[in-house]
Amino acid sequence: MQDKVTPTARYSAPDADEFVEARELLEKPLDKLFTVKPVRVSVPEKAVIEPSVACDQCREPTMRSRLIEINGRHLCRDCAGL
Ligand SMILES: [Zn+2]
Question: Which of 6, 17, 24, 31 has the fewest CB atoms inside 10 Å of its own CB, making it the most exposed?
Fold first, then answer.
């Protein structure tokens, strides 16, 4: 005998008012929706690109510095269980 499954939430289709609100929002000029101004943002350093090395277990190419050495084997994070 199967247990009866009772949904905890029900989907309801949007009503007409919600469609009108959505349409009004989509038709507004962008300057009414957003404030555009110059900002100062610090750009992060370029990422260091290292050659890939195959994981000793799954052979997945992995960035050398991301391999984890366990009992002399160099493993990717998945194979290392991380
Ligand atoms: Zn692996």
Answer: 6
Owner of token pair 């007409």:
16
Q: 66 C-alpha to center of ligand 1: Å?
A: 11
Would you give per-residue pLDDT tens digits along the chain (82 residues)? 556 666 666 667 778 888 899 999 999 998 899 998 999 999 999 988 899 999 999 999 999 999 999 999 999 999 999 8
In total, the chain counts a number of residues equal to 82
3-state helix, strand, coil in the chain (%, to 5): 25, 15, 60
For residue 34, tell me if it sits in a domain. Answer: no
Say which CATH number the domain at 57 has: 3.30.60
* Ligand 1 centroid to residue 44 C-alpha, Å: 29
